[in-house]
């Protein structure tokens, strides 16, 4: 297996993409980011469905596109598997016909289709037309159709978003099983952080036509490069910094000492992990508890700081559960803080005034 390497410049009215990416030779790479950032456009460029104005795309030794050398391989010659949001199955073909569609000649089609039907728990559906299937079944057929020709790279654009959440989970598991049996480097565009957490080995964050951050999933979640990426990754606590005094960050919410690295001493935002915070710390931030969410062993507190900034805290087993409405102080250890550049808000999203939580 080979890495997919692309360096692309593409413009359409109102949108510019300038993006270099090297997707690993194995595993699932999730592409996330705000709507309109260019994720789908990137997949379409890689697939050959849109043509970049300049750049190159290489898969191992094979050049798919090179503007300087006037190489532009047709989509069919890139050996890609696709699956887009609404599985576009061929409506006039049966389930079996759809799965067999891209199989190379010389393959025992009947056997291969039967194998895929069994794999995806679709035995008995071979003769059915797509319009007689449920959304989840259609997505399974579409997955089989994309993978049956053994593509060199798989491109998935929100493949699970059109199905109900419970079905989504079983589709994810089905997909992971397929990937174990037939490992295929995959680019997965999604807005669903559960897709990213559960499926992705790597994450690329696409914002404004550029790749803002790329890395192993755990690393990207733990160390977002700026406040916008942190927000996209679901970091709950982003506090705006009004000013710094030495290594102490000040804001309407209070002040906190930050062990900032010398190259980011004047970050505009501090992100606070919800874990490892200390309730009842006499030197901590003032906080009023607004709600306690207790699910199984997991207890999450929602609170607000003096300027009404909302804050989320996950309690460890030893800490007693405080009452909603009570006031206390919140100690924030250095390890829980990451200073970041960028804006903390979305003012609407992180403040609650009046607080309805
Ligand atoms: N067929 C098209 N014709 C013209 N403009 C388009 C077309 N498709 C997308 N765009 C524009 O190109 C930009 C990038 O869109 P793209 O669909 O790649 O973003 P995205 O990150 O995939 O968004 P989303 O998460 O909403 O799917 C946006 O400004 C969008 O409006």
Automatic annotation (TrEMBL):
The keyword Transport applies. InterPro entries: AAA+_ATPase (IPR003593), ABC_SmlMolc_Importer (IPR050093), ABC_transporter-like_ATP-bd (IPR003439), ABC_transporter-like_CS (IPR017871), P-loop_NTPase (IPR027417). It comes from the Bacteria. The keyword Hydrolase does not apply. SMART domains: AAA (SM00382). GO terms for molecular function: ATP binding; ATP hydrolysis activity. Transmembrane segments: none annotated. Residues 1-233 form the ABC transporter domain. It holds the Pfam family ABC_tran. Keywords: ATP-binding, Nucleotide-binding, Transport. PANTHER family: SPERMIDINE/PUTRESCINE IMPORT ATP-BINDING PROTEIN POTA (PTHR42781), SPERMIDINE_PUTRESCINE IMPORT ATP-BINDING PROTEIN POTA (PTHR42781:SF4). This is ABC transporter related protein. It comes from Allochromatium vinosum (strain ATCC 17899 / DSM 180 / NBRC 103801 / NCIMB 10441 / D) (Chromatium vinosum). The lineage of its organism: Bacteria, Pseudomonadati, Pseudomonadota, Gammaproteobacteria, Chromatiales.
């Amino acid at each position: 297996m080979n890495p997919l390497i692309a360096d692309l410049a593409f413009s359409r009215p109102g949108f510019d993409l300038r993006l270099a990416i090297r997707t690993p030779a194995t595993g699932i790479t999730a592409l996330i980011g705000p709507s309109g950032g260019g994720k789908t456009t990137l997949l379409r460029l890689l697939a050959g469905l849109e043509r970049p104005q300049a750049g190159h795309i290489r898969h191992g030794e094979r050049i798919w596109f090179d503007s300087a050398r006037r190489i532009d391989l047709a989509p069919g010659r890139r050996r890609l598997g696709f699956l887009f949001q609404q599985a576009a199955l061929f409506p006039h073909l049966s389930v079996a016909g759809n799965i067999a569609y891209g199989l190379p000649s010389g393959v025992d089609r009947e056997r291969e289709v039967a194998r895929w039907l069994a794999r995806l728990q679709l035995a008995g559906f071979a003769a059915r037309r797509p319009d007689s299937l449920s959304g989840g079944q259609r997505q399974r057929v579409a997955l089989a159709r994309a993978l049956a020709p053994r593509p060199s790279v798989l491109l998935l654009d929100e493949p699970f978003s059109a199905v109900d959440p419970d079905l989504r989970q079983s589709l994810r598991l089905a997909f992971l099983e397929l990937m174990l049996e037939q490992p295929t480097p995959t680019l997965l565009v999604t807005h669903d952080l559960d897709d990213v957490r559960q499926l992705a080995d790597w994450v690329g964050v696409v914002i404004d036509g550029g790749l803002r951050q790329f890395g192993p999933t755990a690393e990207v979640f733990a160390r977002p490069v700026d406040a916008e990426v942190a927000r996209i990754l679901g970091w709950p606590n982003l506090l705006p910094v009004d000013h710094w005094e030495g290594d102490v960050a000040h804001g309407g919410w209070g002040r906190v000492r930050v062990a900032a690295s010398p190259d980011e001493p004047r970050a505009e935002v501090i992100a606070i992990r919800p874990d490892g915070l200390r309730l009842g710390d006499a030197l901590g931030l003032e906080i009023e508890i607004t709600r306690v969410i207790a699910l199984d062993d997991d207890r999450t507190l929602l609170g607000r700081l003096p300027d009404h900034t909302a804050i989320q805290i996950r309690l460890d087993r030893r800490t007693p559960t405080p009452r909603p409405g009570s006031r206390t102080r919140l100690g924030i250890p250095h390890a829980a803080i990451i200073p970041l550049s960028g804006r903390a808000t979305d003012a609407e999203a992180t403040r609650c005034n009046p607080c309805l939580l």
